[in-house]
């Protein structure tokens, strides 16, 4: 069984998942504890796993050839994490996924998950709802990048992660917003 009822409730928030299906999911999952700063999906790696973050914080970022990093997203507990495009296309990941603090997560074999989805309607519904959620997140992020200035994007981030300044280093927040740490400092003062 999952480590806590909240994990099972999280899965059930996407659809009604039976105990049998949860047991099947556990068979293709491994519970992991990772230290802060651990890259669990590396740039250029062809991934085969998707992750359910149980505790901690994860960032997803793009790294240029010169070594400059651009944060794409932050993940908080009880969210699914992974390089979806690379998984679907079975291609190298453009993104790096890294823990920002000590974290716990379930590592799920993505391709075995797809096989289970073919056999189980409730799991297939869960997967479809997960994809819908991911799509809506990306669409929201795109609208923010196109239509909001840096201060407005910062306010939106604060709504999504209320204590973001205490949880995530300023330079990571600035990168996510597409500004410098100095610009972020000025915004925070206002």
UniProtKB/TrEMBL annotation:
Superkingdom field: Bacteria
Domain Cyclic nucleotide-binding, chain residue ranges per copy: 13-116
Name by which UniProt lists this protein: Crp/Fnr family transcriptional regulator
């Amino acid at each position: 069984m999952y480590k806590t009822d909240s994990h099972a409730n999280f899965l059930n928030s996407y659809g009604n998942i039976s105990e049998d299906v949860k047991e099947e999911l556990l068979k293709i999952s491994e519970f992991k504890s990772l230290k802060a700063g651990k890259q669990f999906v590396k740039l250029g790696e062809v991934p085969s796993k998707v992750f359910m973050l149980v505790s901690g914080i994860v960032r997803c970022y793009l790294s240029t050839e010169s070594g400059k990093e651009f944060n794409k997203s932050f993940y908080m507990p009880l969210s699914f994490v992974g390089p979806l495009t690379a998984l679907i296309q079975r291609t190298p990941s453009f993104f790096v996924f890294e823990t920002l603090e000590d974290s716990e997560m379930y590592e799920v074999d993505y391709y075995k998950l797809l096989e289970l989805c073919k056999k189980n309607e409730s799991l297939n519904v869960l997967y479809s709802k997960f994809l819908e959620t991911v799509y809506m997140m990306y669409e929201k992020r795109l609208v923010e990048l196109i239509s909001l200035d840096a201060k407005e994007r910062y306010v939106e981030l604060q709504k999504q992660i209320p204590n973001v300044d205490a949880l995530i280093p300023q330079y990571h927040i600035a990168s996510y917003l597409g500004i410098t740490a100095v610009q972020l400092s000025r915004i925070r003062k206002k």
